[in-house]
Design goal:
With 185 residues, the chain is an alpha+beta fold. The chain has two domains: 89 residues, Alpha-Beta Plaits, CATH 3.30.70; 73 residues, Alpha-Beta Plaits, CATH 3.30.70. The chain is built from five helices and nine strands, in the order αβαββαββαββαββ. The strands form two sheets. Strands 5, 6, 7, 8 and 9 form a five-stranded antiparallel beta sheet that branches. A hairpin with a 5-residue loop joins strand 2 and strand 3. The longest helix is centred in the C-terminal third of the chain and has 15 residues. The N and C termini lie far apart (49 Å). The N terminus is likely disordered.
Amino acid sequence: MGEPGTKELLSLEELEAAGSFRTGRKHILSILVENKPGALTRITGLFARRGFNIDTLAVGPTDDETISRITLTLDGAVQSIDQVTKQLHKLVNVLKIRDLEPTETMARELALFKISADGGSRAEVMQVCEIFRAKIVDVSKRTLVAEVTGTQEKIDAFERLVRPFGLVEMARTGEIAIARGRAET
């Protein structure tokens, strides 16, 4: 990486390796949009054009079938996120945007883990599942599939513990989130 104050150009790979794009400030954006084709593409395109990497993305219906909720988690400086949210408000299909404060938010993720579990290791894997309150949803001769719901940290911890047994496959949903406390108008 170039010395401070030099005009030496850096490649995108060098900037990413130096961690220039990460601020350590996690943002959870809850975006209510009209349930119309192309809304998700326009929203994610806006983040991509501004150089943001979306960590997780979850989209689903709300209590109103004409409205969907997009939950995005990403890393970024507050000022940069504020600029992007102002631009998001200008998109036709966007109805409401909230930058949820992580400490005042209930966030959960769902993950499915296919774990190698034959012979003697099966009991140990099942014990780990019990500790994490994981639900075993499929069993075969050589593997089992566990369903884990919880915070990102819980799922990461579960993954670290079952990986040594042989993690065959994993699928994660991305976080969904809702603000704690009373209803807002």
